[in-house]
Amino acid sequence: MGVLLAASALAGLLIGSFLNVVVHRVPLGESVVRPASRCPGCGHEIRRRDNVPVLSWVVLRGRCRDCGEPISVRYPLVEVGTAGVFAALAWAVGPTAALPAYLYLGAIAVALALIDLDVHRLPDAIVKPSYLVALALLALASWGTGDWGAYVRALAGGAALWFLYQVTVIVKPGGMGYGDVKLAGVLGLYLGWWGWDALAVGAFGGFLIGGVVGLLVMLRGGSLKTKVPFGPSMLLGALLALFVAAPVADWYLTTTGIAPSA
């Protein structure tokens, strides 16, 4: 398991470096492949040796080699954060055929959360292709584990969570963006494959975290009209559900008397 965690963390560092490009360029409608990364200050192309995750930023002391323009600390933080997400998911999923699917979820979660915080938008360029990628990777996961019931559950979960958010938008127009509805279907696929308890906890967790964030915004001087991106709450709720769904579900069933206590 230690080797798997280390390999996943390393992959997270590398993917995190790419996600920095995605987060910057996708909202602008720019290609994430070309041109190569350049310093926004002097326009010089970033050298390969200066593009090593985290290490290059430390060696350069957070500045461009050519002009000395400061490089935001957010870049290494995204790389380290993605490494942490990948390692945590590897620990939760284990060395199974489902790991690629959930690492992909971790990658888009980091990118979409940051983009939503930056521009209050969940780009179709990431969300829509994620349906096809999720369906393909989860099919591979079911083939590898032999659990095709999980794939059927994923399809049901994706439809159910999409429908829940669609109804929410209809009942309370302006309460959330339609990008949240589209993201809900993707998250429902992953949560459904994981289990019904994950689907329930992940759905509830997103609204709970969003409510807490909204309350904190109001306590800091905001109002009910303050625009707060909901995507990060949805994504965090879904990821947390992969780790806590089973104990939370057991606690709820025992507390309500639905299931007998041990």
From TrEMBL:
One GO MF term attached to the UniProt entry: hydrolase activity
Membrane topology qualifier: Multi-pass membrane protein
EC number: 2.1.1.-, 3.4.23.43
Domain spans labelled Prepilin peptidase A24 N-terminal: 11-92
UniProt keyword annotations, A-Z: Cell inner membrane, Cell membrane, Hydrolase, Membrane, Methyltransferase, Multifunctional enzyme, Protease, Transferase, Transmembrane, Transmembrane helix
KW Glycoprotein (keyword) present: no
Pfam families attached to this UniProt entry: A24_N_bact (PF06750), Peptidase_A24 (PF01478)
Subcellular location: Cell inner membrane; Cell membrane
Function: Plays an essential role in type IV pili and type II pseudopili formation by proteolytically removing the leader sequence from substrate proteins and subsequently monomethylating the alpha-amino group of the newly exposed N-terminal phenylalanine.
Similarity comment: family membership: Belongs to the peptidase A24 family.
Name the record gives this protein: Prepilin leader peptidase/N-methyltransferase
Organism of derivation: Kineococcus halophytocola
Organism phylogeny: Bacteria, Bacillati, Actinomycetota, Actinomycetes, Kineosporiales
